[in-house]
């Protein structure tokens, strides 16, 4: 009926306006002093560049390349390509106002064969990533949640 439609439109508009009002009041100052705004990532999900600089295969590489194991047969060979775009990504974190960045290390990039010889290119990559984070002021020591 027309009355029902009018009520529905009125309620929808009210919700949209109220949501916009709440969002406009929600900002960094809405959080307690010392609150850390940050982001985190997992090497397999963000690095990509699986064939760059001597990186070895991981269990997930093998699994994701097995037909039928992953929907659509996708894999993380490229992912978000942070291995090659880390400078751009650290700039984005700075622009977003992030205070912290937690990342994991792909051990197959450090020890290509699982053990033995160190892959210096992999070590160099992580050193460059850490240097870029330091240059943007994104690397500081924070207490772990379980120590609070």
What would you note in describing this structure?
The protein has 6 helices and 2 strands, in the order αβαααβαα. The protein has one domain (36-147). A two-stranded parallel ribbon has the order 1-2. The protein is flat and about 75 Å long. With 148 residues, it is mainly alpha-helical.
What is this structure's SSE topology?
Layout: H1 2-25, E1 38-40, H2 43-46, H3 59-64, H4 82-95, E2 100-102, H5 107-110, H6 120-135
Parallel strand pairs: 1-2
Q: What's this, in brief?
A:
This protein has helices at residues 2-25, 43-46, 59-64, 82-95, 107-110, 120-135; strands at residues 38-40, 100-102. The chain is mainly α and 148 residues long. Helix 4 packs parallel to helix 6 (120-135).
Quaternary structure annotation:
single chain
Strands side by side in the biggest sheet? 1-2
Biggest β-sheet strands, sense, barrel: 2 strands, parallel
Query: What is the strand tally?
Result: 2
Strand content: under 5%
- Rounded to the nearest angstrom, the distance between the terminal CA atoms is 57 Å
Shape: flat
Number of contiguous helices: 6
Mean pLDDT: 85
Q: What is the string of helix and strand elements? A: HEHHHEHH
Structural class: mainly alpha
Domain module count:
1
If you compute it from the alpha carbons, what radius of gyration comes out, rounded to the nearest whole angstrom? 22 Å
Signal peptide: 1-24
Keywords: Hydrolase, Signal
GO molecular function: beta-glucosidase activity
Organism: Pisum sativum
